[in-house]
Amino acid sequence: MRVLLVEDDTGVARALAETLDARGHSVTAVGRGADALTRHRDADLLLLDLGLPDLDGLDVLRKIRQVSGVPLIVLTARDDERSVVRALRLGADDYLAKPVRLAELLARMDAVARRAGSPATTPEVVHVEDVEIDLGARRVLVGGRDAGLTTKEFAVLAVLAARPGTAVSRQQLMDEVWGDAYLAVSRSLDVHMTQLRAKLDRPGLLTTIRGFGYRLGRG
Ligand code: CA
Question: 26 to each of 12, 73, 94, 131, how far by Cα in Å?
Answer without folding.
Answer: 17, 16, 20, 38
